[in-house]
Amino acid sequence: MKYIDIVIDTKSDHVDNPFTYACDDDEIAVGDRVVAPFARTGKKVGYVFAVHDALPKELTGKRIRPILEIDASRSISEDSVRIAEWMKRRYFCRYIDAVNCFIPAGAASKRGKKRIPVWDNAEPTGPPPELTKEQASALARIMPRVEAGNYGTFLVHGVTGSGKTELYMRIASAVTDKGRQVIMLVPEISLTPQAIGRFIGRFGRERVAVLHSKLSAGERFDEWMRIRNGETDIVIGARSAVFAPFENIGAIIVDEEHETTYKSDMTPKYDTVEVAIKRAARAGGVVILGSATPSIVSKYRAESGLYDLITMKRRYNKTPMPNVSVVDMRREIEHGNRSIFSAELHDRMGAALSAGKQIILFLNRRGYSPFISCRKCGYVMRCGECGISMTYHKREERAVCHFCGDRVPVPEVCPECASGYLRHFGAGTEKVEEITKVAFPETAVARLDLDTSSKKGSIQKILRDFEKGRTRILIGTQMVAKGLDFANVGLVGIIAADVSLNIPDFRSAERTFQLITQVAGRSGRGAEVGDVVVQTYVPDNYAIDAAVRHDYRGFYDTELMLRKYLQYPPFSDVVQMTVLSEDETAAAEGAEALRRDILFAVGHAEKQYIFGPHKAAIPKMGDDYRYQMYIKVVPKRRLDYEKALAELKKKMNTDKGCKCRIMIDVNPFSLM
Fold first, then answer.
1. For a designed S-S bond to 259, which of 187, 274, 302, 510 qualifies (C-beta 3.0 to 4.6 A apart)?
2. Mean pLDDT to the nearest integer, 411-417
3. Phi, psi at residue 258, to the nearest 5°?
């Protein structure tokens, strides 16, 4: 007889702890999926977190019920269980929320048919190209860890076009040659087709599995089973692929490691890079973090010796970095030009098209206009659920909330003053597309953003048309800013470089620098030097100035100095506490009580690191009012805060007399 501790698959905080059961199968193991009696008459699925040969002393004399059955079809590994335990502590989630990251959606096909995603852009690539000196040097630095099977994290800081993808494939080849497995992560679904095409072309379809949220539940389940059954040794996907059911991981590669999409915005709110490092450390594998614009946190860790730093300063084709010119849009207005295109950008576009080159136009704001306002009374149309301004989408004649997705017709008159002066202001990608088609009517134009890529296969088609030259101008949001490699792009136009500077986030300058650098890097990836035009109203901002000069070092030094002075990451963790309630007064009072409890638990000397509570930037979502506070947790106090916040969260979320509940997010990428 064995005794096992299992975590029950339920969303209740009241039972977020292991329960002990008996099991007469001596082969039961940590990670096994079981069915157990629960409550008085019910039964629940659970996962084994510990196995005991004898009944724990503290349970002597108590009635221990046996489990009902073992379901091996969706069992997970012991390593996965240990990662789940760590995730619960780090991200303040329930055990089962962490476990479910490792479990696939969907089920086996009733017809027994394999649902394998088809990628029609995958073609054999031929023999690997000769490595540049920098690529060869980077590989030589990494290979000793691969050969020895030792854990290590490498930050590959390589300029755009330096050949990082070829380096990734060489590492994957070396790892799989040793009988081990590789996880290759990309930040956007839009980038997955190119990565998949290259890896399948090099390694063959049968060896590569794909995991990301755009797959159907059936496809995702079948890919998960292929991986679990050892039918493949390489997985490619977005952030959720970090949980692929490999048990002998030799490398986890995180391309564009700086991207915010690697931070989950749903429970559990995990950081993919942190999870990758934990998985690789347990398996004795390497982690490769690649970027032309590493996050401030990763660069600091590399320079502090926590990561091994590898630098690649030259493009693989030896073409110099693109020429970048800055246009001060304030001067354009002074000269009577109120178009979204400066005179210089318009002229450069005409010249590029005449020379047979392709163009990418970048604006990190979708829709037609970012807000709708009354020119008479100042009314701004806001979402009834979220309270944030709605974006005008001309094609569907709707005002759309980009936070909750609500869509409503635009009224003919102002709801406040009944005037007919309701107008849309500003520009989004939809408006840029319209203006571009008018300015260059003979030119094929396409748009790539969330609105044009919602249908299955639409991203692949848009990118394929651009790759084949059927589209001459590609307009997009951040989906076009990274990872895309098209040799004929001769010009990149950044319509409004300072949009991201206005985001209420301490990372806004970093985000701006990264976006400008990344999208500029799409130009000149062929044999000729590319051009970039950056339009901005704040050309002297240090992030924009450093980006147009390709000066990562200058930006990093300035930003790190500011972060250190203000005690932001990497010098702390920023913890966001959100108190929610259907009663606004209860939410406000609950948030204030939480602040007092935190200070009591960690000491009043920490008062200087706790900010708020205050109404959230989005004060109401659905039926819930929201109050927030932020805590800067310095490294030496992390364990104290982990314990205190976990206890306070469980106390509030399980108190039947409390009208509030708490959500906790560690280092969020949105302060909304």
1. 187
2. 90
3. -80, -10
pTM beyond 0.85, yes or no: yes
Q: Which two tokens stand for residue 301?
A: 């860790």
CA angle 635, 637, 643 (to 5 degrees): 120
Start-to-end Cα distance in the chain = 52
The answer to whether 195 and 186 are in contact (CB under 8 A) is yes
Instruction: Classify burial at 131, counting beta carbons within 10 Å of its beta carbon; exposed 0-12, middle 13-18, buried 19 or more.
Output: middle
> How many beta carbons lie within 10 A of that of residue 215, not counting itself?
22
- Which phi and psi angles does 218 have, rounded to 5°? -65, -45
How confident is the model over 620-632, as pLDDT tens digits? 888 899 999 999 9
Encoded tokens for 118: 């088809």
Domains (range + CATH), the chain: 2-100 (3.40.1440.60), 133-312 (3.40.50.300), 323-367+429-563 (3.40.50.300), 369-426 (no CATH), 573-666 (3.30.70.600)
CA geometry: angle at 423 spanning 419 and 429, to 5°?
165
Per-residue three-class SS string for 287-298: EEEEECCCCHHH
d(CA 496, CA 494) in angstroms, rounded, equals 6
- Give the sheet arrangement for strand 407-409, strand by strand: 391-393, 398-400, 407-409
How many Cα atoms occupy the beta-carbon half-sphere of 499 within 13 Å? 20
Q: For the residues 472-499, what does the mean pLDDT come to?
A: 87
Rounded distance between C-alpha atoms, residue 251 and residue 667, angstroms: 25
- The answer to whether 348 and 493 are in contact (CB under 8 A) is yes
Q: Which residues lie closer than 8 Å to 581 by C-beta, 6 or more apart?
A: 587, 590, 624, 625, 659, 660, 661
pLDDT band (50, 70, 90) for residue 668: very high
Q: Are 16 and 94 in contact (CB under 8 A)?
A: yes
Integer Cα distance of 613 and 633 in angstroms: 16
State both tokens at 2: 């064995």
The DSSP code for 499 is G
